[in-house]
Task: inverse folding
């Protein structure tokens, strides 16, 4: 066989392999972010202890899959009962239990469900924020929906803080179906290209939607805390932005707080293909020690403050197939592992935080603060009314 024939055959093989690899990337929409992952720079481990801010955010949807009222009630009641029992067994370096942030959907509002969750939060187990599923929406309807929902959450349920300077209600946001700023390729499940500006104007302090892989809504920017500037004439303006920096200034319309996104080589499909680690916790993706290690190792931080690491993981907490994982032994073991491996006081210090507290600590880092980030949980935005003076809110009063 001639050299030319061999070379031609090898070229065909390599081309086929490259095509197969590209198809594999496309099948999971990895072309959106794999370049950022491959070429990302590692930050050297800082001197002294690393403070780990662990934040669990929940797309909390009691009406998921068109559930009847009895099913909705059972879902909420189980969370209020079992999460209280789970969280009460665990404490961070500051003596606080795990903090669960319930991003509740505007379109699923039911006073009785929120009264129960608000009581759980008032007892010190988390906070309530804003979630929204919408499709082919308009700016006017979006403004009206978010404004009304924020007022109800704050005035009736004691949720959401008030900016001490402006006196306006503030909220964290997760977009339903991952489609922040109309970012889905086919234009479904949003419809608004200036959503970042609208959220800013309505009092949103930060967005917590990402990561969204393997959805095509995933940004090319990964493992970052950054400001995005909206282009009201095009979608997905948050694909890139300006990193939040210690000693810096805000530079954009909305802060984007991402959770870890990386390849998981330790749990490969068929022993070959790495899985996507998108910080999602559910039955099919239980929170193993290896995953916890990967979340912390990702090292998401404010630039210039690498010793403050933010770990934001997410779930859809009301789906029955996942509740045993979220409220049972797997999550219990996750917290035990966090408290044993990442809370020795010398190499690591663990802080359980809500999304609001994440934002406050980020702003403290941006302002040049250092030391114990647990001291800055309320740095900019105070706690919501339900937790004032540590008292119980009388919902529905």
Result:
């Amino acid at each position: 066989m001639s050299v030319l024939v061999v070379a031609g055959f090898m070229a065909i093989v390599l081309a086929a392999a490259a095509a197969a690899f590209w198809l594999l990337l496309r099948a999971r929409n990895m072309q959106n972010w794999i370049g950022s992952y491959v070429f990302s720079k590692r930050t050297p481990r800082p001197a002294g202890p690393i403070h780990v801010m662990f934040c669990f955010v929940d797309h909390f949807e009691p009406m998921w899959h068109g559930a009847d009222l009895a099913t909705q009630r059972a879902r909420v009641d189980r969370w209020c009962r079992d999460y209280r029992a789970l969280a009460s067994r665990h404490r961070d370096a500051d003596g606080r239990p795990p903090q669960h942030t319930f991003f509740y959907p505007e379109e699923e509002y039911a006073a009785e469900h929120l009264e129960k969750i608000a009581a759980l939060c008032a007892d010190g187990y988390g906070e309530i924020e804003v979630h929204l599923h919408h499709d082919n929406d308009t700016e006017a309807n979006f403004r009206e929906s978010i404004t009304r929902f924020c007022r109800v959450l704050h005035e009736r349920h004691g949720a959401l803080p008030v900016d001490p300077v402006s006196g306006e209600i503030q909220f964290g946001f997760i977009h339903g179906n991952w489609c922040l700023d109309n970012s889905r390729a086919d234009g479904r499940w949003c419809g608004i290209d200036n959503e970042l500006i609208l959220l800013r104007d309505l009092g949103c302090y930060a967005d917590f939607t990402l990561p969204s892989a393997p959805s095509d809504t995933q940004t090319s920017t990964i493992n970052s805390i950054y400001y995005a500037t909206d282009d009201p004439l095009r979608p997905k303006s948050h694909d890139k932005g300006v990193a939040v920096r210690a000693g810096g200034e805000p530079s954009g319309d909305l802060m984007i707080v991402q959770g870890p996104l990386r390849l998981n080589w330790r749990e490969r499909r068929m022993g070959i293909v790495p899985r996507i680690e998108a910080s999602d916790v559910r039955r099919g993706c239980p929170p193993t020690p290896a995953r916890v290690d990967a979340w912390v190792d990702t090292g998401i931080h404010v630039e210039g403050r690498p010793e403050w690491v933010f770990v934001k993981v997410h779930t859809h907490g009301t789906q029955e197939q996942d509740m045993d994982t979220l409220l049972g032994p797997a999550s219990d073991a996750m917290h035990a592992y966090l408290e044993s491996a990442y809370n020795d006081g010398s190499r690591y210090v663990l802080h359980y935080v809500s999304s609001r507290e994440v934002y406050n600590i980020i702003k403290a880092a941006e302002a040049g603060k250092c030391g114990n980030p647990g001291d800055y949980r309320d740095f900019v935005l105070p706690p919501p009314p339900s937790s004032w003076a540590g008292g119980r809110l009388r919902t529905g009063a």
Summary: Residues 48-390 form a domain with the 7-stranded beta/alpha barrel fold (CATH 3.20.110).
